[in-house]
């Protein structure tokens, strides 16, 4: 039995390597794939054959092999090969969508959630949406290729049970069996993960950064993170790794909603910045605050300070994880990037220890509003497509 399970594990690893290599380098020939992945021709042939038979890959044109006019067939992911429904739960909204294997969003909907809404009501919205896709006429031709449902929720989570544990400002959701409820109602596989991890997986699947390892930093109403290392998600012991927002940036500093003190989130998240800026004016949202934060003003100083805190936490993470690439993501991050990015890049480059190895790069996600839904669907592809 043990032998069988390690065989299966190896198969899963090889499939993961091939799938991610094709995703990043497509269209790519078998020969180029072999030299890029380092897998033996036999292994590669087996994996590619399985993906072609299952309809996850498609042969797309040819390329010259460089000698005697011979040409090589190139491979790429088949967008229609599999679909997943993604849900991204935030404290004040629920986004829902249908995503294809290439990470393209076919259907998207975002509904705001009232503070008083019960988890049961929210889960009813989820089942109503999924049923409209799974049973309605609109997507009937592709229904059989919808392989599962992915859900991203605020953490911390119990990954094995598919539940939220004790989320700050999200108490009603504690220990609600989200996965088993959706599975029973809808009858298809359901995968749940922390929303920052989900966003990191979405970034890995659809972001096309051309790297197999990076640290993802979510910035917005909260601050979170996810780590992709050699195409694998690092979840930690309890499934709650990379809580970037709770790295301490001020010893015995401001109280954080996690119950701790001096956390990054208490200084650099959108609610923290709006709270600090409220002493100098009324700001409805971060966009309004940014507009008023002209260079030389006290508001700009608040944002500059937040950038320094962000940079400090990223330097800590880089020293700890030895990553050479950070992706900043989140609905509003493109607004904050003009202030955060130069400071983060400068501080990271200044680190004498790292400078001797290689300076880490920082990029800003180009996935917009649908990022959470793409991430939740990618979680399904990541978990269910491989090693079956
Ligand atoms: Zn905290």
TrEMBL record:
GO function terms (MF aspect): kinase activity
Alphabetic keyword roster: Carbohydrate metabolism, Kinase, Transferase, Xylose metabolism
GO BP field: D-xylose metabolic process
Pfam family, one: ROK
Family recorded in the similarity comment: Belongs to the ROK (NagC/XylR) family.
PANTHER family for this protein: BIFUNCTIONAL UDP-N-ACETYLGLUCOSAMINE 2-EPIMERASE_N-ACETYLMANNOSAMINE KINASE, ROK (REPRESSOR, ORF, KINASE) FAMILY
Biological function: Transcriptional repressor of xylose-utilizing enzymes.
Name by which UniProt lists this protein: Sugar kinase
Organism: Paenibacillus nasutitermitis
Organism lineage string: Bacteria, Bacillati, Bacillota, Bacilli, Bacillales
């Amino acid at each position: 039995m043990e032998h069988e399970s390690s065989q299966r594990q190896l198969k899963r690893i090889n499939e993961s390597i091939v799938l991610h290599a094709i995703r990043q380098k497509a269209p790519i020939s078998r020969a180029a794939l072999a030299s890029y992945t380092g897998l033996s021709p036999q292994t590669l042939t087996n994996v590619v054959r399985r993906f072609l038979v299952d309809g996850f890959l498609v042969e797309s044109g040819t390329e010259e092999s460089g000698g005697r006019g011979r040409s090589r067939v190139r491979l790429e992911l088949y967008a229609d090969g599999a679909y997943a429904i993604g849900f991204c739960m935030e404290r004040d909204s629920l986004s829902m969508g249908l995503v294809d294997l290439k990470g393209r969003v076919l259907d998207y909907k975002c509904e705001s959630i009232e503070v008083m809404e019960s988890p049961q009501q929210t889960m009813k919205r989820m089942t109503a949406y999924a049923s409209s896709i799974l049973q309605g006429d609109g997507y009937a031709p592709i229904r059989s290729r919808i392989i599962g449902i992915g859900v991203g929720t605020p953490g911390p989570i119990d990954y094995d049970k598919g539940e939220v544990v004790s989320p700050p400002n999200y108490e009603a959701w504690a220990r609600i069996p989200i996965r088993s409820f959706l599975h029973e109602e809808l009858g298809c596989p359901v995968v749940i993960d922390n929303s920052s991890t989900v966003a990191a997986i979405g970034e890995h699947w659809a972001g096309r950064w051309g790297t197999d390892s990076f640290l993802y930093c979510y910035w917005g109403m909260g601050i979170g993170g996810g780590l992709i290392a050699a195409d694998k998600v690092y979840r930690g012991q309890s499934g709650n790794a990379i809580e970037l927002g709770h790295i301490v940036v001020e010893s015995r500093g401001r109280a954080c909603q996690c119950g701790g003190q001096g956390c990054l989130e208490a200084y650099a998240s959108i609610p923290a910045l709006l709270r600090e800026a409220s002493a100098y004016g009324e700001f409805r949202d971060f966009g309004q605050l940014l507009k008023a934060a002209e260079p030389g003003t006290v508001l700009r100083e608040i944002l500059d300070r937040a950038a320094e805190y962000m940079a400090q936490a990223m330097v800590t993470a880089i020293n700890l994880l030895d990553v050479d690439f950070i992706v900043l993501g989140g609905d509003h991050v493109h607004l904050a990037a003009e202030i955060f990015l130069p400071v983060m890049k400068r501080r990271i480059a200044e680190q004498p220890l790292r400078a001797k190895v290689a300076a880490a790069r920082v990029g800003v996600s180009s996935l917009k509003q649908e990022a959470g839904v793409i991430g939740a669907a990618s979680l399904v592809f990541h978990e269910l497509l491989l090693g079956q």
